[in-house]
Prior knowledge:
The chain has 11 helices and 6 strands. It is α/β, with parallel strands linked by helices. The strands form 2 sheets. Strands 2-1-3-4 form a 4-stranded parallel sheet, sandwiched between helices. A two-stranded antiparallel sheet has the order 5-6.
Amino acid sequence: MNVQEMREARTKAVVVFTKFIQSKDRFDQDLFCFFEGEDIKYYEPRIEEYTEISYANIVSFDCGGKSGVLKIRSMIKEKGIYENVRKAFFIDRDFFPTDIEDEELYETPCYSVENFYTSKSAFARVLKTGFGINLNEDDFERCMNDFLRTQNCFHQSVTELNAWLKCQRRGEMECKKRNVELSNFKISEFFEKIAIDEVKLRKIIDTKILYEKFPKALEINDKELANEVYHMRGCNQSNDFRGKFELWFFKKVIDDLRSKNKNNMYFKEHRECVKIDPNVDTLLQLSLCADTPRCLKEFLSQYKRAS
């Protein structure tokens, strides 16, 4: 994290902390939740379901990024007077877990919240609820087989990219400075086509082009990168690869299925009332189809009050 990001995290945390203490009249009855950006769209319905707390008694705060959540957590915990206030903090693991032991802190078991949306099971729910395809239909089997095959092709195309980014993040943690900023990086420019049954590259994503795009990037030792690529080829890629890349691929596949259905292609029969649109408020629109891991259910269950 660079100096500017540290300042922004502190500023955001101060604003959130002020709002939190201004809610003191609700400290005895509400659950206060702190999120990274729009992750609330994934978490809030699950918080309501697994804590059995009404939405009216869930007070949510957007803390910006991960550093903002951790900063506001530190500010609140430094004040012992808030120890008995019910609080929950939610962060993404990214490439490296924080290893913070805190029963009030939930860290995703995958790279980020976006990875909950892009698994095999999440895709199955999209087919069922978004396209009306039952699991016993031939169209379901064809879609699932093609999805897994093309997802594997996509993963092969971005393995070195993810490995390189992980090496960069490791180096940045050591020097405490962010050198590779991905906010303006577009994975789409490397692909000519993403479809349910085809992945076509426009240009190979290699280190040469990455160093050109990120001139401030750290020089990664060839052996370190090779070791990370080897590890990434054997990991749960849908789980461990950068979530925003995974979600971009997932959305393109759904878009392709919508187009094929509209033009009476691919499916055995035209699917009526297909209204799903992954490009409009994605985390909210696809939340119903996203996975809810056991560790999240267990984390949230601690906030249920005995009846």
